[in-house]
């Protein structure tokens, strides 16, 4: 799938990453790349439908993947994402906050 000859194939073995927005787009690519180097992955999205195909693709790479639904604009959801990842894998080493911020909102409400 990915060929990056200058990194060791086991570069991220025994690491765990939480990637928000990891079901689609650029963050899906990041999740797949991390998984290709042995990283266990948790991906988060507001929509479960965005997560399931990516979970299958990551698991085909031979690593575990957790799908977590939630909205990064809600602190309780973020706590659940982080807590669920740590509970499932026993640790959390890497966080990529790539969830899209493409919503209409007044700046003072962010």
Protein described:
The protein is an alpha/beta fold and 110 residues long. It has a single domain (16-100), classed as NAD(P)-binding Rossmann-like Domain (Rossmann fold, 3-Layer(aba) Sandwich), CATH 3.40.50. Helices cover 35% and strands 18% of the residues. It is built from 3 helices and 4 strands; from the N terminus they run E-H-E-H-E-H-E. The longest helix has 15 residues, at 75-89.
Number of strands: 4
* Corresponding CATH architecture: 3-Layer(aba) Sandwich
Task: Walk across the major sheet and give the strand order.
Answer: 3-2-1-4
Roughly what fraction of the amino acids lie in strands? 15-25%
> Which whole number gives the mean pLDDT?
90
Query: Which regions are unreliable across 5 or more consecutive residues at pLDDT < 50?
Result: none
- Main beta-sheet strand count, sense and barrel state: 4 strands, parallel
CATH topology: Rossmann fold
Distance between the termini: 38 Å
- Order of helical and strand elements: EHEHEHE
CATH superfamily: NAD(P)-binding Rossmann-like Domain
The rounded Rg comes to 14 Å
* Total separate domains: 1
CATH class: Alpha Beta
Counting DSSP H or I runs of 4 or more residues, the number of helices is 3
Indicate the percent of residues in helices.
25-40%
Q: Which structural class best describes the helix and strand composition?
A: alpha/beta
The dominant shape is globular
């Amino acid at each position: 799938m990915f060929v990056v000859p200058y990194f060791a194939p086991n570069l991220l073995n025994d690491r765990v990453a939480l990637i928000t927005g990891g079901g689609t787009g650029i963050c899906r690519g990041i999740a797949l790349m991390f998984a290709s180097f042995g990283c266990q992955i948790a991906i988060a999205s507001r929509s479960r439908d965005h997560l399931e195909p990516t979970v299958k693709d990551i698991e085909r790479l031979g690593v575990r993947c957790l799908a977590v639904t939630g909205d990064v604009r809600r602190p309780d959801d973020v706590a659940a994402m982080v807590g669920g990842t740590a509970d499932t894998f026993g640790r959390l080493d890497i966080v990529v906050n790539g969830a899209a911020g493409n919503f209409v909102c007044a700046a003072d409400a962010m």
